[in-house]
Amino acid sequence: MEIVPIDTHLTAIDHDLMAVPGVGATYVVQGEAVALVETGTSLTVAATLAGLDELGIARDAVGHILCTHIHMDHAGGAGYLAVNLPRARVYIHRESIPHLADPSKLMPSARRAVGEAAWPLTGDMLPVPLERLHPAEDLRLDLGRGVCLEALPTPGHSPDHVSFWDRRSGGMFLGDAAGLSMPRHGLDFPVTPVPTYDLETHRATIEMLRKQDIGRLYLTHYGVHDDTDDKLRLALEQIEGLAEMVRAVLADGGAEAVDVAALAARYVPYPDDGPAALVARSWSQMSVAGMLRYLKKRQ
Ligand SMILES: [Zn+2]
């Protein structure tokens, strides 16, 4: 666990997602009230709580937990956090509220998406009591002292994806809306996962984001990025590039010809023995599979 100070009202807790530093963060936003953005998985909750302790934030002082979308590394820890932060409301897109209230249907689908190699690092889920769940997509959360979070729906990576403006800094918590960027690991690519990835919607979302005046990106994977325009343009190029690569193989030999692992290694080259090898492999394979599924549906 590492505390990363960002701004007077904003801190990141690196909670060692997938057991690697520099991969996943929960953001702590402090006005008079305290909000967390992103939960990590159930396996990162202990690190997040230790981070809150180190910041001197009492468990009952956290009023809000915001999830950008339903994937395990963004909302998987919600139930465990809700138990430990007894006064917090939990926000996620309306359509995903039933899955946080009863994760039993979500788990098998998440397991298929994540793959067996990475599944042990993905954790499990506790249900969040329905009365503590609130829709995120229209949220405007005034935390006091001029700190305000405001939702902006950003579907594509997943249909329920919502990003959050930090009005105080002019930055945005972007979740997975326009790709990950982990400088410590030299990884920089959009995740386009099974089973609900939608290329057309994703493209429209990134174009929409490019028209916003976003000062800084607060990425869940990972950290603060000031080169907003470059990041968004690169993400767009990369999803087109991946789509092209998968289309070419489909045109050549049909879906049976697609070797997901081989294509993933072309999409995200990363050494097999590197510290983030499992992250790179799992998320790139998920991306190829997601793009393949989307393109096959379109045929
Ligand atoms: Zn995701």
| Structural Rg | 18 Å
Outline type: globular
Q: Main sheet, how many strands, which sense, barrel?
A: 7 strands, mixed
Do you know the CATH topology? Metallo-beta-lactamase, Chain A
SSE sequence, one letter per element: EEEEHEHHEHHEEEEEEEHEEHHH
Secondary structure tally: strands: 15
Low-pLDDT sequence parts:
none
Structural class: alpha/beta
Overall pLDDT score:
96
The CATH class is identified as Alpha Beta
CATH architecture: 4-Layer Sandwich
Tally of helical segments? 9
Q: How many domains would you count in the coordinates?
A: 1
Task: Name the bound molecules.
Answer: zinc ion
Question: Layout of SSEs?
Answer:
Blueprint lengths: L1 E6 L2 E5 L10 E6 L3 E4 L7 H10 L7 E5 L5 H4 L2 H7 L4 E4 L4 H5 L4 H9 L18 E3 L4 E5 L2 E7 L8 E5 L4 E5 L4 E3 L4 E3 L9 H13 L4 E4 L3 E3 L2 H26 L6 H8 L9 H22 L1
Parallel strand pairs: 4-5, 5-6, 6-7, 11-14
Antiparallel strand pairs: 1-2, 2-3, 3-4, 8-9, 9-10, 10-11, 12-13, 14-15
Helix pairs in contact: 6-7, 7-9, 8-9
The protein binds zinc ion.
Give a written overview of the molecule.
- With 299 residues, this protein is α/β, with parallel strands linked by helices.
- It has a single domain, classed as Metallo-beta-lactamase, Chain A.
- The chain is built from nine helices and 15 strands.
- Strands 1-2-3-4-5-6-7 form a seven-stranded mixed beta sheet. Strands 8-9-10-11-14-15 form a six-stranded mixed beta sheet, with no helix packed on it.
- Helix 6 packs antiparallel against helix 7 and helix 8 crosses helix 9.
- The chain is globular and about 60 Å long.
- The mean pLDDT is 96.
- Bound molecules: zinc ion.
- Zinc ion binds next to loops.
